Structures
1.
Amino acid sequence: MYKSILRTCAMVMVMAVTSLSLSTIGALADTKGYFIDLLYLQDGKTEQDAKRYFDKVVPIIAKHGLRRVTPGFKVTMKMSGDISPNLINVWSVGDVQNTMNDIFSDPKYLQHMPLRNSIFDMKRSHMFMMKAMQ
């Protein structure tokens, strides 16, 4: 009888912890997302210029929850649509509400913005924050 009560208590505790963990994971998943940037290079700039820029900023932005999902891509063929970017990056975002604000508040990142603007045509480039459809 005593073992049965202990076993029942243990099962209830495991169920409670599992339920709490799953609800926490669900809540965390609500804040995660993806970021895609479709980048145009400034005239005379190259993929290597872009790579040098990203080599400098990736460690900084990763601290704020923006991490590459894939290597950067160069566009080799336009299949359809109105835009023709040179480069595409796909990132995971730890917190869609705060990650970008945190990055743009970081002095270590901000010091690289003149370099970014000299390499990429930011007026023509497109950026999208995304979350999974429910």
2.
Amino acid sequence: AYTAPGKPWQNGAIESFNSRFRDECLDREWFANRAEARIIIEQWRNHYNEHRPHSAISYRTPAEMRQRALSPCGALAADAIEAVA
């Protein structure tokens, strides 16, 4: 999607991601070369997409949500079990 210059609110999800990427990865690392940058960025991407809790999914990790979705009973049963516990 095209975002007009000077209007970041037109694409809030990407702007939010870019901010997190800069804060959590780029501003914390010093890359000696492109190969090292690729490795570190891939490690961060894996953490972000698999192990980092996300507010949009009730502070669960994407890996947890995938496991819940693939479980035999699905997420509804898992939610019912959590409600009883």
3.
Amino acid sequence: MAVPALWPWGVHLLMSLLSLGSGLDTLEVCPSLDIRSEVTELRRLENCSVVEGHLQILLMFAATGEDFRGLSFPRLTQVTDYLLLFRVYGLESLRDLFPNLTVIRGTRLFLGYALIIFEMPHLRDVGLPSLGAVLRGAVRVEKNQELCHLSTIDWGLLQPAPGTNHIVGNKLGEECADVCPGVLGAAGEPCSRTTFSGRTDYRCWTSSHCQKVCPCPRGMACTAGGDCCHSECLGGCSQPEDPRACVACRHLYFQGVCLRACPPGTYQYESWRCVTAELCAHLREVPGLATTFGIYEGSCLAQCPPGFTRNGSSIFCHKCEGLCPKECKVGTKTIDSVQATQDLVGCTHVEGNLILNLRQGYNLEPELQRNLGLVETITGFLKIKHSFALVTLGFFKNLKLIRGDSMVDGNYTLYVLDNQNLQQLGSWVTAGLTIPVGKIYFAFNPRLCLEHIYQLEEVTGTRGRQSKAEINPRTNGDRAACQTRTLRFVFNLTEEDRILLRWERYEPLEARDLLSFIVYYKES
């Protein structure tokens, strides 16, 4: 029997399939992993076939190249969220560490990215020869001073939208010897050529590893010999047209088979596999903690969506009458990004304190409202400081009570400090926000007019509790047009090169309230 010819990258794929077995029968699923400081911590990946969540490897300052010698995790084929590498010293390539990593699904992203390689001082090439798909999210490769072989990667073969990638600040192309196998005297068969970003070139991950380019309809995987896999396969397969022989699944996995949809009696979980109702009921988002997993519209979810809740002993999500009550114990939670609000989705009763410190971002309100918009009660205090990204607090659209069980500095239930762009308090006045104990404090909010704060005092019942210094008229609203006055012009003269205007003297209550006059004009 003749042995089929292998494509230039086929030897590597064949070895990968031999090391993995012929299919998906023995998947070992691991939760998100944050591996830092010690190279020995990487042993936590030992038996993982799939990291269901994210994989972060970072801050290994004392590591050397010798520490990574012989270290390999050939079983790992998938990461369902994102892969992040940051300041791992001594690591020169990922080719031995993750020789069979095939898919990064990007179900959840890190600031919009599914693959992040940042400030890796000794990394010489990415070296992920089995990587066949980054299903969602962009790639960020930045500030890696020794990193080459970036120009030889066709990201368009891996991603649906490679145009959003951010690949900057790496070793200059003219300083790299980016030669693919079989080119300019390099050993091996020549790699395939493709056109990416207007440039046709040989495609490889390293000087000895070609990038996979399948001779199949775009997006389809293939065997080491170049035969097309089943349409539900992703990244490769051991047998053509066999959904049981896939390295990874394009859509869903169940009992060793890749499927387009989950079979009856099973439910989609984490966007890549099917589980039974019994398994869904016993899943734990955080090991050791009680679970509220529910089934909703054919999916097994870590929690029922807003407006739905589990009804008694049933695992299925049912629609609530009005708002679904959901208590969330947070202690003191600092929210410094939109991502930090995701575990408060659906919460109506926050037991603890919230501190908002959103220094950067753009148009955050829609996402904040999705995550915080159902909160009705905060049992402790609410502190909003240095949140330059906030224009309004309207995302707390259902907040009715800040109870003040604990207070800022033992005095303040609501504390709003140094929010340079804050202009509106949202619906707190019309919704009737109540603050039964403690004071409110507002300072250095230059675009928030005092009238909004005074209205809030009335509604919350806090008028008279705080002094004038605690709602400072000098530092709140001092850069906003909070009061309008009509100036009466008494004289104007138009000449060829100038206009002379004169108006009645404006006398504010205090002279220092008037800084200057600014006249805007438009040429006719």
4.
Amino acid sequence: MDVYFLLLPDVHLLDMAGPVQAIHECNELHGGFFRPRFVGLGASVNCWQGPAIGNVEPLPETVTADSLIFVCGMKLTPQVMAAARDSRLTDWLNRADRLGATLVGICTGTFVLGEAGLLDDRQCTTHHRLLQALNEAFPKARVTRERIFVEDGNLLTSAGVTAGIDLTLYLIARLRGCRVAIDTARELVVHNRRMGEDPQISEHLRHHNHVSPLIHEVQDHMVRAFREPLTVSGLAAAHRVSTRHLQRLFKASTGISIKGYLTALRLEKARELLADGRDSIELVAEKSGFQSTRAFREAWMRKYDTAPSLLRGHPREQEGRRPDAP
């Protein structure tokens, strides 16, 4: 299968290298199923971080319907936007779309797809800092917030930087099977493999946008010890404040209660374990810090309104597995 990595001027290193490395490791572990090719409008491109990349192929005349085309993220400079509007590129992307090739926008690569007119009435996303700009630039697009990546037919778009790795692993799972994707993730030392419905900002970071040193310390304590039977009184004693003062300051600083934050951390860990698919529901509950399987199921249902068993091993990936995949 041909995998094209479209490189435009000022490409971001990790927006390119993350997906490239995931594809490479999959080939190393499970045979050369993917054929990576680096294409663009010129024979070389400069990365925004400094290095130059050479041996860039011209855009091929045609692509096949089973091709993958990664539009790698780049700095949104005037030079880049001029390149994104180049008719050679927009025509090529439209031809690929009409053929049914899979188009993958990594971070600001979504803007390039938009310039080609491929976002109209389609769900899409980008880096959380650029969501408003994406919405303003392409008002016909259905911009989705709070998602690591979004799939709409043959169009997939992701948030920036490491989210490109998550999206590539998702595609590997769909094309080669869940076990191959898990093997690839482990080779990449990606312990917490995120899925499309996951938020772009983790629970740990989401509630850290405040200036209270005490509450930062308490949050770090909870992140380290969320598997333990933590209590509000125990946390207050450990940090030498009254229980009432800690509860009031924590809620004022983070916008969430101590119990709510602890449950969110535990559910985030549970999602990771369920996605891996190796542990039973009972063991997931234990490893995530819940006192019982029942408490875990109730917390999960309150947040996601579905049974945790539906996420184990991502059955939707298993359904898309190739019959000849190992």
